[in-house]
Design a protein that fits this description.
This protein is mainly beta. It folds into two domains: 2-43, no CATH class; 47-109. The protein has one helix and eight strands. The protein has one helix at residues 2-9; strands at residues 14-18, 24-25, 39-43, 47-55, 64-70, 73-80, 89-97, 103-109. The protein has a five-stranded mixed beta barrel. It has a three-stranded antiparallel sheet with strand order 2-1-3, covered by helices on one side. The N and C termini lie far apart (32 Å). The model has no long low-confidence stretch (mean pLDDT 91). The chain binds zinc ion (ZN).
Length: 114
């Protein structure tokens, strides 16, 4: 988890992938829950799908936030661009650690139709 956050802090989003069975492990954990092998942090592209979104009433999240699925993993982040709709393509444009130590993710609408 610390390794994962170390990358996020640098704006580098990586996820643990099992070195043996290639399972993607989310939330971040260093060992595969399926085969107990050690996992490695691999960079994945930030393209995902917006599953749901809403307007934030929380102080530390600006504007719209939503649930984005990237290759089977789900993240909550701020969504930029518009108009927004469920099922549209988004891309991670930024990640980092906020002042209270939690990771944050920013996504933007993409025009990629694939
Ligand atoms: Zn495994």
């Amino acid at each position: 988890m610390q390794d994962f956050l170390g990358y996020v802090k640098k704006g580098d989003f990586r996820i643990y992938v099992c070195a043996s069975c290639k399972k993607k492990i989310w939330p971040p954990f260093k060992y595969c829950p399926k085969c107990l092998s050690e996992a490695r942090l691999l960079k994945i592209d930030g393209n995902g799908v917006l599953l749901e979104f809403t307007f934030s009433h929380l102080k530390n999240i600006v504007g719209v936030f939503g649930i984005v699925e990237i290759r089977g993993i789900r993240l909550v982040g701020s969504i930029f661009g518009g108009p927004l709709r469920q099922g549209m393509r988004v891309k991670m444009i930024k990640c980092g650690i906020n002042s209270n130590g939690s990771p944050f993710y920013h996504f933007e609408k993409t025009n990629n139709k694939t």
